[in-house]
Design brief:
Low-confidence stretches of chain B: none
Strand content of chain B: over 45%
Largest sheet of chain B: 7 strands, mixed
Number of strands of chain B: 11
Distance between the termini of chain B: 37 Å
Oligomer: heterodimer
Order of helices and strands of chain A: EEEEEEEEEEEE
Chain lengths: 117, 113
């Protein structure tokens, strides 16, 4: 069985603060893929990043950065200098290589980020 | 290019009724997936269709069914609606090859009373 845990239900920060969203996953597969999606109030899920289990290189993209650590089964997401437009629900998701369908993602329960002025 | 489009955006039904939700994928995408997102939860996988064939099914009862048409659009049908079926239903399309990312629509908000 696979599971994704996002322990932070809601985070509130003031604009320009840095914020880290935590994600812990469980899987028995040795090959798997991790994702982060953003869900603004409009409802659609916006793809942010995909990371393969065999690639632990961390990544920075603009104000976003991701820290993948297999040893602790974590895939954390940091927003630097947060902005009001970052306010949304953020989901971490997992897909095992042997799921059989490329579209079956297991999502966490999400973290609602509120950025205020 | 147009993104994934879903219709209707909102729907109110009564227990026991049947509902059909529609999805048009991004042009060129051959795979369509359906997810159910109950309020306060993450999306849960219902179905994937690729080239008009079912390629995956989540842990949902037989009241849920879907199909994909030759133009790759898709319909999700839910029979004998229950209060617990109230949710945001999300459609996602992808090229269907390898790990091509899923592109989601804005969803259909279904309320069962």
């Amino acid at each position: 069985a696979q599971k994704v845990t996002q322990a932070q239900t809601e985070i509130s920060v003031v604009e320009k603060e840095d914020v880290t969203l935590d994600c812990v996953y469980e899987t028995r597969d040795t090959t798997y893929y991790l994702f982060w999606y953003k869900q603004p109030p409009s409802g659609e899920l916006v793809f942010l990043i995909r990371r393969n289990s065999f690639d632990e290189q961390n990544e920075i993209s603009g104000r976003y950065s991701w820290n993948f650590q297999k040893s602790t089964s974590s895939f954390n997401f940091t927003i630097t200098a947060s902005q009001v437009v970052d306010s949304a629900v953020y989901f971490c998701a997992l897909r095992n290589r042997n799921t059989g369908t490329a579209s079956k993602l297991t999502f966490g329960t999400g973290t609602r980020l509120q950025v205020t002025l | 290019d147009a993104g994934v489009t879903q219709s209707p955006t909102h729907l109110i039904k009564t227990r026991g009724q049947q509902v059909t939700l529609r999805c048009s994928p991004i042009s060129g995408h051959k795979s369509v997936s359906w997810y159910q997102q109950v309020l306060g939860q993450g999306p849960q996988f219902i179905f994937q269709y690729y080239e008009k064939e079912e390629r995956g099914r989540g842990n949902f009862p037989d009241r849920f069914s879907a199909r994909q048409f030759p133009n790759y659009s898709s319909e999700l049908n839910v029979n004998a609606l229950l209060l617990g079926d109230s949710a945001l239903y999300l459609c996602a399309s992808s090229l269907g090859t390898g790990l091509s990312p899923l592109h989601f629509g804005n969803g259909t908000r279904l309320t069962v009373t």
